[in-house]
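Batch 3, record 17
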Amino acid sequence: MSDTTLDLNPDQLGRDLVTLVLTIVELLRQLMERQAIRRVDLGDLNEDQMERIGRTLMMLDVRMTELCETHGIRREDLNLDLGPLGSLLPHY
Amino acid sequence: MDPYRDDGPLGAVLVWGCLTIMHDLEPVPWQGPEGPLGPLGVPLVDLLDRVLATGVVLSGDLVIAIAEVPLIRLSLHALLSSVNERVSAPWSDGGVL
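Prediction for the assembled complex:
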């Protein structure tokens, strides 16, 4: 059995934790985006709703970029490798 | 009648949905050029999106027992789906939102 000590770097740990949290937030944002697109495609939304959805999604995207900048993370780092299930989010 | 038994249409739709997803795509290698792709070749978020569009019913039963005497029961029956013409939002005015 190999050495079971964990080598923890406090800075990297903090950044990895933030990356994980932001990855989950990004998952929800992308899921909501896809769901909103489906709803728009169904055609059962009025003009006002579509406009509000579009504007909100755009603001969420901008906010995500800001959050990543604040924490010194690249947007492309927000992902999870789930082994046999593939990656969580698309690679950009 | 046990309220937690439901092998109804949504369950059938879920199976159909899975079969459709499996049917459309060719098997792809585990490791793609950009990184792990998984057996479906798409990121998991796209799979979640399609599952939501199809709709899922999750149900579970948990019984906690001591010396084979059942003491606590937890039963869950949950619907998780996109809001569409088949599955409407539960409150007509959109609820608290």
